[in-house]
Every structure is written in structure tokens, then in C-alpha cells.
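Example (one chain per record):
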Amino acid sequence: MKIGSVILAAGLSKRMNSAIPKVIHPLLGKPLLSYAIESAKAVASIPPVVVVGFASEKVMDAIKADVSYAHQIEQLGTAHAVQMAEAQLSGKVELVVITSADMPLVSAGTLKKLIELQEKNDGPMTMVSITGNESRGFGRILRDDSGNAMAIVEEKVATAEQLKINEYNAGIYCFKADWLWNALKKVKKSPVGEYFLTDLLEIAVQAREKVMVLTLDDADEAIGINNRIHFAEVEKIMRRRINEKLMLSGVTMIDPERVYIEPSVSIDQDTILYPETYLRGNTHIGKNCEIGPGTIIDDSTVGNDCRILKSVLEGAVLEDHVEMGPFCRLRTGAHLASHVHMGNFGEVKKSYLGKGTKMGHFSYIGDAQIGEDVNIGAGTITCNYDGENKNKTVIGDETFIGSDTMLVAPITIGKKAITGAGSVVTRDVGDGEKVVGVPAHVIKSKNDEETKK
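Predicted structure:
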């Protein structure tokens, strides 16, 4: 069967107390709505239809996914919202799955089970329920003596006896498409002036149509987000699931509750993560690494056998056997080759450090190309910005840069050259030359060495 999907994302979300629409608030690095889209795309035959309303321009700007949009100009309830998607889906699909943008824990696996159940159903709809002692404001599902679902009673109008019912409507549905579009026209306006999707159950029952119910094994899937407390609750559940999956794959976490990993991150086996480590964005960590404590890594690649302590990486690449920290920072474009060592309080931006290079503490390297086995002394600064342009520094293999050297770019330092401590180097230095002073001058050249021989 061809499957369509409608995601309801038009609410005002007043309880968020935010100028940002709830559905695009970030949850583990992605807009909240993205999770509903990913699950829907896993089961839908055509791009999901997202029904937007409040601040729709902001929502559409934030979502970079293959979806189509339907606009609910007036927020007149969930049934009215689904009607807005009819033009995009009518005649194109046989079943329609309906979910909410603020329920990010609903999995594609659950939606597949829902669809499979409806495909076996002679009736027009299948709905999802949860059971438990916490209603979270969901309506109660009323059943007849035979156990068939008859109606949904909203919590605020339920009787004391109905409030004892512990089966709740999760607000996730699968409908026969043709029946859905006709039934929506029969929904009557409620006393509060809205048209509710829950009324479709009674419409089906009154027509003696069969309604099936899928009860979730994990009630957490149906947690909806209405405020920032709910955001924190859902994020904690997501983090736990991510961490458990990684630990089962061979990653060690000293204290999993204090390790924060986004779903886009991948980590190889036998890596150890210490507390207060944050791994975000498009990040990959190799095998047998030690990360943290107190480390933040964004959109970076870390090779095998690396050791990173209390440092920050942003858009960086580390090859194998790199050691850095504590208190180092790699900014966008930093690339450390294998066996590079960075001491504490070092910073690298848009630069390459060659194999085996050692960078002392309290140093800054920006817009530079550093060769292999270079010693960069403590306090070394590449003076790369002249007030208008960022200029490049090039340092050859096996060069020794003395402590507190200022390298005024653009500048090239040759292979096996030496700069004395405290030098301010304003001119290129040739291979094997030694320079000292302010400004730096040559006190030993390559020619001197050749003369001695």
C-alpha cells in the first residue's frame, strides 16, 4: 500500500514562553520537528506533509528536509489541521499516518507496527494507546464489554470513574485515506470552537466500523513536549538510549549520566569517555581513545589512540596517537597529524601540524602550515592578522621555535631552522638558519655550517 504521513506542527505552544516556535527548539542538536520527520519518512511512500501555522516561516526556514507543507491559518483543532493536508495526499495514498511534531520519541518501528495492524484491519482506523499510572493529560479510551474501543474522553471532562481508566490515547493514528477525508467533514465543532481528531473514533463506531488499537510496550514513546521541563525529560531519555547503545557496542563510560552525546555521533570500540564530555554534531571518535573529563567536541574527527583532556574541538581533524590538553582549543580548520602533542592552554585555528610536532603550552597557531617533528616552544604566537588580512605562516620540518617567539605573517621558516627565545621574526628564515632578537636577525646561517665543514 502507498502510505502518506501528516505531522501536526501548527500549535501556538504558549507554555514554552518563547519567541521561537516550539517545534524548532533544539533537542540534542536538532530541531524537535526533525525527529517526527525522520520517523515518518521511514514509513511513508511520499514526502511527509507538515501542517504549520504559528510562525510558519521560521519553521520552514529551520527544517532542511524533503517534506511538503500545508498551512493552517486559523488554529481550529487537530481535525481541521489534518484537513489542510487533504489536497497534497488525496488520491495519492491508501493509508495516512498522523503524528505530532512534539512527540520525538515515537519510533519508525512503532509506526511500521501501526501500519501493519491497519493493513489487517477491515475497518477504517487504527490508533495507538499507552497504559500506566501517569496520564500526562491524555484522553481516556473507553471500551465496551467485548473490549472494543468506543470513545475517547478528554481528561478535563472525564468523570471520577473515567479518570480511573489507565489506558490513554497517544494521539497517533493510521487511517484509510478515502474514509479519513470523508469522515473529517462529519466532525462537529466542540464547545471550545475547535474540531478534534479524536471524534473520528466515535464516527467509526457509530458506523459500526472496526477500530483497532496498538498498545505501546514503552510508554515513554508517547511523551509529548509542551514546556521546557518536558524538553529536559525527553532529552534525558534520549541520552540514556544513545549511551546504552554505545556501551553495548564497546564504548566505556565512567559515568553515563554525565556524558552527553548527540545521535549524529559515532564512536569505535574500546574508547573511554570520562564525565562532563560533550560530543556533538557530525563527530566521529576512533578506537582506543580517552576523551575527557571536561571535553567538548563539535563536528570533528578523532583518530585512533588519541588522548584529549579538558579541551574544546570545533570542526577539527585529529589523526592517530594525538595527545592534547588540558585546556586546549582547536578551532575550525585545525588538523593535527599523527603523534602530535599539544600542551596545556594551546590554540590552533585553520592550521596543519605535521607528524610528530610538539606544541608547547600558552601558544597560538593560526593560518599556518607546520612541518613534521617541529618543536613549538611555550608562548609562541603566529601574528596572522594585520588589521585587514589573515596571513599565512609556513614552518619546515625539524625546526625549533623558541619560547615566546612572535612570527609576523606572512612568513616562511625553513627546515631545521632555530628561533631564539623572545624573538620577533618579521622576515623569512632559510633552512638551517638561527635567528634571535627584536627584530630577529641571523646569527648562524646554513653557509656558516658548510664553512665549518
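Caption: The first strand starts at residue 3 and ends at 9.
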